[in-house]
Amino acid sequence: MNLADLQNIAEAPASVVATRPRLTQAHADLTREVTVVDESGQHRAIRIPAERDLTVYVDKRELVTLMTLGAHPEWLVLGYLLNQRLVSGVHEIESITVDWDVGAAAVVTRSGIDRIEERTARRVVTTGCGQGSVFGGLMDDVDRIVLPPQARLRQSQLYSIVNTIRLHDSTYKTAGSVHACALFVDERLQLFVEDVGRHNAVDTIAGWMALQGSLPAGEKVFYTTGRLTSEMVIKSAQMGVPVVISRSGITEMGLHVAQRVGLCAIGRATHKRFYCFSHPQRIVFDAIPAEAGAA
Questions:
Q1: Distance between CA 207 and CA 200 in Å, rounded?
Q2: Contact between residue 92 and residue 109 where contact means Cβ atoms under 8 Å apart
Q3: Cα separation of 253 and 180, whole Å?
Q4: 8 A C-beta contact, residue 282 and residue 265
Q5: How far lies 70's CA from each of 8, 100, 172, 199, in Å?
Q6: What is the rounded CA–CA span in Å between residue 180 and residue 224?
Q7: What is the DSSP string of 46-91?
Q8: How far from 66 is each of 100, 164, 231, CA to CA, in Å?
Q9: Residues 121, 118: Cα–Cα separation, whole Å
């Protein structure tokens, strides 16, 4: 199958136009086996992440090439378009068709993307793994984001989230070299995604969220193994998530954005330790360690 065939399939008229876009379910192996030589000079077979390129075409126009594991490429592409603010919702997308034989994703919109050339002309290279990038200004529309003012997370729930991630079966445990992101409602895991870059993982979760009619009742919490840069904080806020937890730290601009939008940014979260960098009023301290309380 070539790219033209892929685009023709994606553009096939639907008998009934629905709000939910038509998505393929392309699958790819997340790891591959390679032979290495260890410290004793012995040959060993180990597994490494199977990074691959996915070129995204929107209405036959090449937009970007994403480097990804390819676990959920349709969700990734949808989330990318949403987080880049090129579309405002799934209702604007007719279909997303992914074909790994040609390494391409064909997106067909319902009415086109207004001023797409102008809106994608300016690209900001971010601190994302590999190199992330966003179209337009990073701070565009940030002040329009409104997060739930009463959203709270209990300290005991935070510890439960960190422990859930620690115990979760993952590509990282078998192959390393990937980042993980996860969406929780309170302490209940909704979706766990790994990719070669944390920006891909958060975009995949954003795409999945957009396809859900609703989520269970409770507060949305986002977890990432990567650092909280401005890009990660903005994407989380755009997803309506008021609390973000990172195993790593936060950058100065990430902190500035978190303070500005009312997002509770928690970093260095391991076991029973963490730092709250912004809006600590969103944390209910119900599980203070005994030694910390004594101090």
A1: 11
A2: yes
A3: 22
A4: no
A5: 22, 9, 15, 13
A6: 6
A7: EEEE--EEEEEEETTEEEEEEEE--SSHHHHHHHHHHHTTS-SSGG
A8: 13, 29, 16
A9: 5
pLDDT tens digit string along 183-195?
Answer: 999 999 999 999 9
**What are the CA-CA distances from residue 53 to residues 39, 70, 72, 204 (Å)?**
32, 9, 13, 15
* C-beta of residue 226 within 8 angstroms of C-beta of residue 246: yes
Contacts of 69 (CB under 8 A, 6+ apart): 28, 30, 49, 50, 51, 52, 171, 178, 194, 195, 196, 200
Contact between 117 and 247 under an 8 Å Cβ cutoff? The reply is no
Give dist(CA 19, CA 217) in Å, integer.
23
Per-residue model confidence as pLDDT tens digits over 236-294: 999 999 999 999 999 999 999 999 999 999 999 998 999 999 999 999 999 998 876 55
Calculate the alpha carbon distances from 258 to 121, 264, 286 in Å: 27, 7, 23
CA torsion angle for 202, 10, 4, 100 (degrees, to 10)?
A: 40
Q: Distance (Å, rounded) from C-alpha 171 to C-alpha 87? A: 31
Residue type for 103, please? G
| Whole-structure pTM value | 0.84
CA–CA distance, 188 with 51 (Å, rounded to integer): 29
Tokens of 202: 């958060």
- Dihedral sign for Cα atoms in the order 20, 80, 262, 224: positive
